Amino acid sequence: QVQLVESGGGLVQAGGSLRLSCAASGRIFSSYVMNWFRQAPGKEREFVAAIISWSGGRTYYGDSVKGRFTISRDNVKNTMYLQMNSLKPEDTAVYYCAAGVVGTGTYWGQGTQVTVSS
């Protein structure tokens, strides 16, 4: 059974940093691309970042987070991370991890709230 559990969300001031984690069960990392998405109230879900365990760990980022966020993964711990720096109020959203292909999730976590105060 596939399970994805996010953690690390919280309240932070603008300019601050947070690191999100996504713990995965099963053989997720060897079978799927791992993604981060986010959804703010009243807005559509937005692709944030993705990482591939093969192909040398290639990464992809949404335009709004390039240069500020870094995605990484620990295949031994079956955990994916999202290091978020220089946070802005517009980064406020529920952040989800998802396993699938780049930009599309097949399996989803329950989400973790990130709130950035101005």
Task: Report the span from N to C terminus.
Answer: 40 Å
The arrangement of helices and strands along the chain is EEEHEEEEEEEE
Helix run count: 1
Task: Indicate the percent of residues in helices.
Answer: under 10%
What's the shape? globular
- Backbone structural class: mainly beta
Could you name the ranges where pLDDT drops below 50 across 5 or more consecutive residues? none
Largest sheet: 7 strands, mixed
Strand residue content: over 45%
Per DSSP E runs of 2 or more residues, the count of β-strands stands at: 11
Mean pLDDT: 94
Radius of gyration: 13 Å
Give an account of the 3D structure.
With 118 residues, the protein is mostly beta strands. It has one helix at residues 28-31, and strands at 4-7, 10-13, 18-24, 33-39, 46-51, 59-61, 69-74, 79-84, 93-101, 104-108, 112-117. Strands 2, 4, 5, 6, 9, 10 and 11 form a seven-stranded mixed sheet that branches. Strands 1-3-8-7 form a four-stranded antiparallel sheet, with no helix packed on it. The protein starts with a strand and ends with a strand.
